[in-house]
Amino acid sequence: MKFDHQPSYSLGHRTPSSKDVAPGENGVTLVSQSVLGAINRGRVLQALYDNGPKSRADLARLAGVNRTTITGIVQPMIEEQLLVEGDASPSDFKGGKPARPLYFNPEAPVLGAVLLLPGTIQTCLVALTGEIKAVTKAEFDPFGDRQAFIAIMKDTLTSTLSQAHRAPFGIGIASAGMIDSDNGVILAVNLAPVLTGLPLVKILQEHFSLPVVIDHHPRALLVGDRWFGPGRGQQNFAAIYTGEVLGGAFFIDGKVYRGLAGSGGELGHTVVQIDGEACNCGKRGCWETVAALSWLRREAARIGLPQPGSITCARLVKEAESGSEPADALLERYTRNVAFGIVNLQQTLSLNSYVLHGDLAGGGATAAERVRRHVERLVMMRPNQEISITVNGIGEGHTALRGAAGLVLSSHLKVVI
């Protein structure tokens, strides 16, 4: 399935090349005027995501520039139908021209999004406003034939993209496993070997003739948090995912931290217990060995909880609140084990804000509060420091899909996330 045309919007559909930058004698690097313009457009879009519909005057105040400068940035986006102006609001007591709020055009091209986890595929279309539609789901054999997986992926995406009224801006993929985001390759997925070594970006770009970008699943969750969740408007926070595996991502000084080729965020394989249990990665004592569902279910079986193979944090919370002392004790240990890793992050980066996803998020505010109490007991607190541990109530699937769409914005529309 190929789209015959690309979107015509000039919103910086490329990353800066060597022609765009000019390194000086002392290593100082400047960017070209065209790239600076793309960055400014991206920052205006990010301000709208952070703050909702805003007038030119509002955007000028937020950016600390004059209204003429803002008009020069937003007017081309209005003419290209990326943004629309709402109805004029009444003038204040000072008089002057009535303000007209700017926001995303619901008729603008959408973003394709994919959530790829061991055994499951979800695809959808995401409007610039965050609305999710045309959701398609499929299953695949994580230990099966690679060509069969590729066929299922193409068919699932085709079903979704065929419902777009015009060519999407691109396709963003949130994938489990170890991801080389620079080269678009899934390096390894322990729970789905069929994906290991797969150059998925190249395959889908050639098939659909659209820009494609891929990143680590927890990083997409972080971007989803930044768009519409607890990370909205924040400059520093981390997303922590627990489930069959454990992972995370960082938002530092207003930007997603990726590391070399997207290698940052393998939090499950940071060591919290020297000479501890063997991990799937081959090391011992990884955080994942004491804070993932496999540990939780083994412990549930050891202490005699009923149906231990299906135990979750949500069920533990429910049983603890119903008076089960064993469930309450196991919940306390589970949240403490999660807290150990967060303490190390806090001592290292001092992000102060952590959003829980996956199994821990299923435990809601009760689980989050227990994690927070453990963190505050273990961390070296500074005066007036507050540590926030929250859950994203939007739901993991929608957050990850919105985050996958956000990867397209980041890569091809120059929204700084």
SSE layout:
Layout: E1 21-23, E2 29-31, H1 33-51, H2 56-63, H3 67-79, E3 83-85, E4 102-104, E5 111-117, E6 120-126, E7 132-139, H4 146-161, E8 171-175, E9 178-180, E10 185-188, H5 200-208, E11 212-216, H6 217-228, E12 237-242, E13 246-252, E14 255-257, H7 288-291, H8 293-302, H9 313-321, H10 325-349, E15 353-358, H11 359-362, H12 364-378, E16 388-391, H13 396-412
Helix pairs in contact: 2-3, 6-13, 9-10, 10-12
In angstroms, what is the radius of gyration?
23 Å
Please summarize the sheet with the most strands. Answer: 5 strands, mixed
Topology-level CATH name of the largest domain: Nucleotidyltransferase, domain 5
What is the H-and-E element order?
EEHHHEEEEEHEEEHEHEEEHHHHEHHEH
Major sheet strand order: 7-6-5-8-11
Reported CATH architecture of the largest domain: 2-Layer Sandwich
